[in-house]
Amino acid sequence: MTSSDKQTLNIGVVGTGRWATRSHIPGWQRDPRCRVVGLADVDRDLVKAAGDQFKVDRVTDDYRELVEDPDIDVIDVVTGDAMHFEVTMAALEAGKHVLCEKPVNHDYHEVVRAADLAASKGLKTKLGFTFRYAPATMYAAELIKQGFVGTPYMINAYEQNSQWLDPMNPLRQQNDPSDPDRIQVASIEGYGAPVIDIMHWWMGAPLTSVVGTMRNFVPRRMVRDTGRMERMNIDDGDMFIAEFEGGGLASVQSSFVTVGNFPGIEVRIYGSEGAIIVRLVEENGICQTIKTATKDEVEFVEREIPERFFPNGGSSLEAWPFLFYSNLVADFATEILSGGPENQGDFRQGALVQHTINAFEASHRQRAWVDFPLAGTESSQAQTPAA
After folding, report:
1. Containing domain of residue 19, as a range?
2. What's the CA gap between 350 and 239, in Å, rounded?
3. Do 90 and 149 reside in the same domain of the chain?
4. Which one of 5, 13, 157, 384 has the minimum C-beta count within 10 Å?
5. What is the DSSP letter of 217?
6. How far out from the chain centre does Cα 338 lie?
7. Are 111 and 381 in contact (CB under 8 A)?
8. How much is the average pLDDT of 197-220?
């Protein structure tokens, strides 16, 4: 039976931690076309609790049980980063469509390999680019496509996140034991990726070069796995500049230590005809706003987001993990069930975002501008901004 013949999808979720239970599982269960039929996690108590909470009877500590089940259509990978690639590749090899939290792999070459494998098997993929699916973001993308901003000139994209301003708030250790003095990528990959995704999407032009730097502002932190204060040499603050074909510019900031309510995503695009500001921050009970201005009316005015960008019954008063992820999984379900070529925010887009992150890191290491694509990369693989 082809995807276009199916009317419902059976979902297996691998990983049942906080993000899975806040966004992924309830997002799937919100869509009547989707059935979460199995949960897997190496922590037996955690997966049992999730099964009880969401009334999913089938729980296991071995993800292969779900991957190898012929009745499961989609594997949703919500494990820790270290297991993303292993579970993803196993699921693709087994013929499953895959939703994976970012990053699929820290090396963009491997993300390209996963994208190629999915394409060879006719499978759909999707990255957990949560903020691409915020109603405000999607509305802005429609306005840009309609020509509201004219020719895009500049994007300012940042992510404020005060969760780890307090060093006592546990964070997963990411040090390289072979080189403890080398700052390891953390913030730009985990929290910068969503704004980098939007940057490519909205600019709609090939990236040509980048420059920037990373900082480790809080050197000693509570390590999640050990419960001890230890040296954690990670990038808890980053700033980068990007140049695009045709002359467009972008600035990108990501951080674990910027005061403000998270997720703290804000993207501003300025063009020849107008400008748009999308702010995805939970403030005063509202999780998103969009403001626009034109060259003739330069004062920014808030716009009402049309109902068509929300899931059924949804509103900006909902918690953002549930609202935005409801849109993400609904979009994925539509892409799979339609059987058509549409597949936004897929692994190919994920490879482009990861490639950009790798280029940012290279710029920091070299203390210089870096050309994009990176040397030795086929541009056809590196530059495929997804609509």
Report:
1. 3-101
2. 20
3. no
4. 5
5. S
6. 23
7. no
8. 97
Residues with Cβ < 8 Å from 360, sequence gap 6 or more?
A: 188, 192, 210, 212, 238, 240, 252
User: Cβ of 296: how many Cβ atoms within 10 Å?
Assistant: 7
In 3-state terms, what secondary structure has residue 134?
coil
Q: Could you tell me if residue 124 is inside a domain?
A: no
Helix (H, G, I), strand (E, B) or coil at 294: strand
DSSP state of 20: I
Structure tokens at 126: 């999707």
Nearest-angstrom CA–CA distance, 114 and 262? 31
User: Whole-model pTM?
Assistant: 0.93
Is residue 381 scored above 50 in pLDDT? no
- 163 contacts 221 by C-beta, under 8 angstroms: no
> Are 80 and 140 found together in one domain?
no
Handedness of CA 309, 148, 159, 387 (dihedral sign): positive
For residue 4, what pLDDT is reported?
Answer: 52
Q: Is the Cβ–Cβ distance between 77 and 99 less than 8 Å? A: yes
Does the pLDDT of residue 369 top 90, yes or no? Answer: yes
Tokens 């999913």 identify what position?
A: 56
Task: Specify the length of the chain in residues.
Answer: 387
CA–CA distance, 232 with 226 (Å, rounded to integer): 13
Phi then psi for 73, rounded to 5 degrees?
A: -95, -35
The backbone region for 339, taken as left when phi is positive above 0, alpha when psi lies in -120 to 50, beta otherwise, is left
Distances (CA, A) of 276 to 144, 167, 286, 381: 9, 35, 18, 30
